[in-house]
């Protein structure tokens, strides 16, 4: 049981290049999320997908697109990378824990992206 | 911004002391959760408190919630060097799947 897997772990881009960050979960969770983490800013929600087939904007969606490919996978795309998108990106998933009767998030290890 | 705020931003204590960190949020909530992040890693869930609860315990963790003040606190008792990490609160509103995270408290426990 791997949990939430993100790829790549590190990436360096030049301004204007595009790339897709991959995320997959094996916990059969309905909801998936993309966050960015910048120093002193905590985590800010970029996009989320409450269930397969739906996506919604979070707090900072500009410059990003997402695809909920299936229940397992949720990708984040930067069409034209900018230096302001240098950050650490985290993918998370959440689902109902029937044993503890709660819904919590599980995070991937993150993708460290630098845009030069 | 919808983000919650935590204070202090950073906290340094000796091993064995208690650590208290606070979280303030802006909107009505269904529940509030605390997460821990070790350096360079993803966040890990610690504890959840529902809007109709005032206090929750889990091992050395104690969480309180005051919905009238839109605030919560996390107390870690008898801290250990291994507790060194960043701690974040996250709120979840009613009828939503969105989690709103606070800005975090960096805790350093000195051995």
Topology:
The complex is a heterodimer of chains A (116) and B (111).
Chain A: E1 4-7, E2 10-13, E3 19-25, E4 31-38, E5 42-49, E6 56-57, E7 64-68, E8 74-78, E9 87-97, E10 102-107, E11 111-115
Parallel strand pairs in A: 2-11
Antiparallel strand pairs in A: 1-3, 3-8, 4-5, 4-9, 5-6, 7-8, 9-10, 9-11
Chain B: E1 5-7, E2 10-14, E3 19-24, E4 31-37, E5 43-50, E6 55-58, E7 61-66, E8 71-76, E9 85-92, E10 99-101, E11 105-110
Parallel strand pairs in B: 2-11
Antiparallel strand pairs in B: 1-3, 3-8, 4-5, 4-9, 6-7, 7-8, 9-10, 9-11
In short:
The complex is a heterodimer of chains A (116) and B (111). With 116 residues, chain A is mainly beta.
Give keywords.
heterodimer, A: 116 residues, mainly beta, seven-stranded mixed β-sheet, four-stranded antiparallel β-sheet, 0% helix, globular, B: 111 residues, five-stranded antiparallel β-sheet
Distance between the termini of chain A: 36 Å
Largest interface: A-B, 26 and 26 residues
Helix percent band of chain A: under 10%
**Largest sheet of chain A, if any?**
7 strands, mixed
Distance between the termini of chain B: 37 Å
| SS content category of chain B | mainly beta
Q: State the total count of DSSP E strands of chain B.
A: 11
Largest beta-sheet characterization of chain B: 6 strands, mixed
Q: Count of DSSP helices of chain B?
A: 0
Rg result of chain B: 13 Å
**SSE arrangement of chain A, N to C:** EEEEEEEEEEE
From the alpha carbons, calculate the radius of gyration of chain A and give it in angstroms.
14 Å
Task: Quickly give the structural class of chain A.
Answer: mainly beta
Q: Uncertain spans of chain B, ≥5 residues at pLDDT below 50?
A: none
How many alpha or pi helices of chain A?
0
| Beta-strand proportion of chain B | over 45%
């Amino acid at each position: 049981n791997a949990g939430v897997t993100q790829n790549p772990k590190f990436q360096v881009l030049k301004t204007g290049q595009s790339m897709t960050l991959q995320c997959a979960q094996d916990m059969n969770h309905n909801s998936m999320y993309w966050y960015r983490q910048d120093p002193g800013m905590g985590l800010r929600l970029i996009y989320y997908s409450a269930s397969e087939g739906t996506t919604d904007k979070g707090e900072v969606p500009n410059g990003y697109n997402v695809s909920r490919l299936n229940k397992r996978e949720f990708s984040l795309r930067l069409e034209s990378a900018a230096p302001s998108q240098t950050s650490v990106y985290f993918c998370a998933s959440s689902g109902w824990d029937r044993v503890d009767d709660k819904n919590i998030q599980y995070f991937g290890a993150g993708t460290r992206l630098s845009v030069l | 911004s919808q983000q919650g705020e935590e204070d202090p931003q950073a906290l340094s204590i000796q091993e064995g002391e208690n650590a208290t960190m606070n979280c303030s949020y802006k909107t009505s909530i269904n529940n509030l959760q605390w997460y821990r992040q070790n350096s360079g890693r993803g966040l890990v869930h610690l504890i959840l408190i529902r809007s109709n609860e005032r206090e929750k315990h889990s091992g050395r963790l104690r969480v309180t919630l005051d919905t009238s003040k839109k605030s919560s606190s996390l107390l870690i008792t008898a801290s250990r060097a291994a507790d060194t990490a960043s701690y974040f609160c996250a709120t979840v509103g009613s009828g939503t799947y969105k989690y709103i995270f606070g800005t975090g408290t960096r805790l350093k426990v000195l051995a």
